C-alpha cells in the first residue's frame, strides 16, 4: 500500500541492516508466502468529499518535476505533521516528495499541495519484516484546516482497540489484479486479537506472529481488506463521543482480502511516545499546538483561562464537519421586526475595510466604552488592522455614524472552529466610544445567572428570510431560552449530531419560524431584568439552517464566561481603560456596571448596582 508497485519486495530479514554481518543468510525467501507491502482497499465503498478529512496522499516528482507518481497514503495529525509507514519513506529523496490534502475524488481541483521538509523514520524499522513500520513527515509550511482538511486525534498509549470496528481508507486498487480507483475508498474491518490472527496465519501456512507493535484487522472469510496503494493510510476508530482516533497505519499483508489472511497495521498506541518525541524534534512552539488542537496565529492574542478543561484541546482533531448537517456560523434574524434607532443601543457592527470598500462581517455587543464582545469565529481569518466597529446604527440610511478601529483581539484559547466550542472573543477599540442615547453598553450577568425559561431578544443585520438580501434596518425577534435536554432531543429528532455543553445556550421554537441566521453571528441575546435593566445572556454562535422545525439556534453562554471576560479586560494595560461618565438623561436602565469599570459623577458604580 505505500510505495509504487514497481518497487521490489524485501522479504529477507536483515537484508537491509548494514550492521548485521550475516545479513540475508539462512532464509529461503522463495518458500515463504509472498508478502506485499503495497496495499489497497478491497470490498469497500467510495468516500464522499470530507468523509475522511485526515487522509493524505504522498506523491513523488520525477525528472525535475516533469512527472509525478502516487507513492503512499498518510494521515494528518497536526498543522505540519503527517504519519505514514516507514517503508513509504525510505526509498525516495525527500526533496521530491509532496503531499495533497482533502482529496476524495481524482478530478478535484483547488487542493492544498505542500512539499515535504523532513522525514523521521523509526530507528528500529526492519524492511524485511516491517517491524516498527512508522515514519513522521514534517511539511514545509502549515496546513490550512477546513471542512475537508482536519487532523485525526491520536490515542493514548494505554488504549486498546481490540474488538472495535475500524475504517481503513485509501487510494489502493479495488481488486488484487485490478486498477486504481477514481475516488477514495473505505471499508469497515474488525480489529482482532493477536492470537486469532496467528491462528489464521497458521491455517494459511504463513510464517507470521503478530507482535505488540502490530494491529491485525480483517475477516476470516476475507472479502474486505486493504491492498496495493494504501500503505501509510489510516485505520480510524470512532469513539463514543463522536470523535475519530487513529488506531493504526496500513503496513503490510499477504495478497488482498483472501481467507485467513488479515492485514497488519502499525499499532499507534504502542508508538504514541515515539510520535511525541519525533514531533519535538521537528516542531516549533506554534506547531506543537497542532497535535493538541486548533492552531492560533500569533497576530491574535489568546488569554489563558484557568477554568478551561485542557482535555478538550484536541476537539479540533477527529471531527468530520462535512459529514454533519450544514453548520452555519453566519446567522440572521428570521421572523422578526425592524428595530427603532436606540432600541438596541449596545448592538455593534463589525466591518472589514479593503481597497474595494467596506464589507459587513459580523455583529457584536458593546460592554464598555472600549470593549466589544463577539463570536470567536468572527475574529479569525481576517486582517486585524482592517477591522472597524460601528455603533448606534439601526438603519443603513443613518448618517454621521462613527466607525472605530479595532486595536486588539483576544480570542478564547479553547475556541474550536469545527464545533464552535468556546465561541467568544473580546475586541478592544482604538478609541473610546462616545456614549449617548443611541450608544450604550449592556450589563454583564453574574456567573451564576440562569436564563433558562426566560424570553430573550436576538438582534442582527442578517437576512430576513433564508437566501434573501440583508435588511436595511436592524432586526430583532423574541425567543425562549430552552433547557439543554430539550434542545438535544430536538436535534436528535432532526438527526443532527449535536450535544449542548455548559458553555452553550439554546433558544428557539420546536416549530421553527423564528431564529437567527446568516449575518447575525456575534450579536447579542438580550434579557430584560425585573428592574428594567438589560443583561447579556448570550452571543449568536451557530445553528443548522434557519428557523427550521426542531433546529433551535446555539448561543455562547455569557454567565459561563463571565470570569474569562473580566480576566480578558484586566489583561489589557491599565492606560487603555478609561472611566465612563453616565449622562443622567439615559443612565437609568441602560448603563452597564462592571466592578470599578464604570463611573458616574466621579463616584464608582458598584457591580450590579443602578447607575
Automatic annotation (TrEMBL):
InterPro entries with a match to the protein in the record: Peptidase_S1_PA (IPR009003), Peptidase_S1_PA_chymotrypsin (IPR043504), Peptidase_S1A (IPR001314), Trypsin_dom (IPR001254), TRYPSIN_HIS (IPR018114), TRYPSIN_SER (IPR033116)
Coiled coil segments of this chain: none
Matches recorded under Pfam families: Trypsin
Example GO molecular function: serine-type endopeptidase activity
Keyword line: Disulfide bond, Hydrolase, Protease, Serine protease
A GO BP annotation: proteolysis
Stretches the record annotates as Disordered: 1-28
Residues of the Peptidase S1 domain: 41-280, 333-570
PANTHER family in the cross-refs: ACROSIN-RELATED, SERINE PROTEASE 56
Protein name, per record: Transmembrane protease serine 9-like
Protein source organism: Galendromus occidentalis (western predatory mite)
Source organism phylogeny: Eukaryota, Metazoa, Ecdysozoa, Arthropoda, Chelicerata
Amino acid at each position: 500500500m505505500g510505495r509504487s508497485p514497481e518497487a521490489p519486495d524485501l522479504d529477507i530479514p536483515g537484508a537491509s541492516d548494514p550492521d548485521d554481518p550475516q545479513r540475508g543468510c539462512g532464509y529461503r525467501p522463495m518458500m515463504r508466502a509472498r508478502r506485499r507491502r503495497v496495499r489497497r482497499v478491497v470490498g469497500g465503498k467510495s468516500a464522499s468529499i470530507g468523509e475522511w478529512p485526515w487522509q493524505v496522499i504522498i506523491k513523488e516528482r520525477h525528472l525535475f518535476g516533469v512527472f509525478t507518481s502516487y507513492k503512499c497514503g498518510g494521515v494528518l495529525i497536526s498543522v505540519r505533521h503527517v504519519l505514514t509507514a516507514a517503508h513509504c519513506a525510505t526509498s525516495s529523496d525527500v526533496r521530491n516528495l509532496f503531499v495533497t490534502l482533502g482529496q476524495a475524488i481524482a478530478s478535484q481541483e483547488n487542493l492544498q499541495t505542500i512539499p515535504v521538509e523532513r522525514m523521521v523514520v523509526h530507528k528500529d524499522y526492519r524492511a524485511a519484516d516491517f517491524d516498527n513500520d512508522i515514519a513522521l513527515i514534517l511539511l514545509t509550511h502549515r496546513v490550512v484546516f477546513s471542512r475537508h482538511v482536519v487532523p485525526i486525534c491520536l490515542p493514548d498509549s494505554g488504549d486498546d482497540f481490540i474488538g472495535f470496528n475500524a475504517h481503513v481508507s485509501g487510494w489502493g486498487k479495488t481488486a488484487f489484479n485490478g486498477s486504481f480507483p477514481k475516488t477514495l475508498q473505505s471499508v469497515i474491518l474488525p480489529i482482532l486479537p493477536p492470537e486469532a490472527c496467528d491462528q489464521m496465519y497458521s491455517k494459511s501456512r504463513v510464517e507470521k506472529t503478530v507482535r505488540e507493535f502490530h494491529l491485525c484487522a480483517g475477516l476470516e472469510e476475507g472479502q474486505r481488506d486493504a491492498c496495493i496503494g494504501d500503505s501509510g493510510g489510516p485505520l480510524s476508530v470512532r469513539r463514543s463521543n463522536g470523535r475519530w482516533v487513529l488506531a493504526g497505519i496500513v503496513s503490510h499483508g499477504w495478497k488482498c482480502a483472501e481467507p485467513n489472511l488479515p492485514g497488519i497495521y502499525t499499532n499507534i498506541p504502542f508508538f504514541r511516545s515515539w510520535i511525541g518525541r519525533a514531533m519535538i524534534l521537528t516542531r516549533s512552539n506554534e506547531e506543537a499546538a497542532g497535535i493538541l488542537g486548533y492552531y492560533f496565529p500569533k497576530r491574535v492574542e489568546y488569554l489563558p483561562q484557568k477554568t478551561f478543561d485542557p482535555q478538550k484541546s484536541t476537539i479540533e482533531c477527529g471531527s468530520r464537519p462535512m459529514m454533519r448537517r450544514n453548520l452555519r456560523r453566519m446567522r440572521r434574524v428570521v421572523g422578526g421586526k425592524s428595530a427603532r434607532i436606540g432600541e438596541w443601543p449596545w448592538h455593534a457592527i463589525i466591518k472589514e475595510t479593503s481597497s474595494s470598500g467596506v464589507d459587513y462581517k459580523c455583529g457584536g455587543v458593546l460592554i464598555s466604552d472600549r470593549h466589544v464582545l463577539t463570536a470567536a469565529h468572527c475574529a479569525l481569518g481576517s486582517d486585524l488592522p482592517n477591522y472597524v466597529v460601528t455603533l448606534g446604527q439601526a438603519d443603513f440610511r443613518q448618517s454621521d455614524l462613527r466607525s472605530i478601529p479595532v486595536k486588539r483581539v483576544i480570542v478564547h484559547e479553547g475556541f474550536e472552529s469545527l464545533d464552535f466550542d468556546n465561541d467568544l472573543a473580546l475586541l478592544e477599540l482604538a478609541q473610546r466610544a462616545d456614549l449617548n442615547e443611541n450608544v450604550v453598553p449592556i450589563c454583564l450577568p453574574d456567573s451564576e445567572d440562569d436564563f433558562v425559561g426566560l424570553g430573550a431578544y436576538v438582534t442582527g443585520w442578517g437576512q430576513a428570510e433564508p437566501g434573501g438580501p440583508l435588511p436595511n434596518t436592524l432586526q430583532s425577534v423574541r425567543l425562549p431560552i430552552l433547557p439543554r435536554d430539550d434542545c438535544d432531543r430536538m436535534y436528535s429528532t432532526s438527526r443532527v449530531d449535536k450535544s449542548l455543553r455548559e458553555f452553550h445556550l439554546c433558544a428557539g421554537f420546536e416549530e421553527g419560524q423564528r431564529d437567527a441566521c446568516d449575518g447575525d453571528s456575534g450579536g447579542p441575546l438580550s434579557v430584560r431584568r425585573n428592574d428594567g435593566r438589560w443583561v447579556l445572556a448570550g452571543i449568536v454562535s451557530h445553528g443548522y439552517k434557519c428557523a427550521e422545525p426542531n433546529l433551535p439556534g446555539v448561543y455562547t453562554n455569557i454567565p459561563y464566561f463571565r470570569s474569562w471576560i473580566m480576566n480578558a479586560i484586566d489583561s489589557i494595560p491599565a492606560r487603555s481603560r478609561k472611566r465612563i461618565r453616565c449622562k443622567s438623561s439615559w443612565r437609568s436602565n441602560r448603563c452597564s456596571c462592571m466592578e470599578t469599570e464604570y463611573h458616574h459623577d466621579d463616584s464608582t458604580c458598584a457591580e450590579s448596582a443602578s447607575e
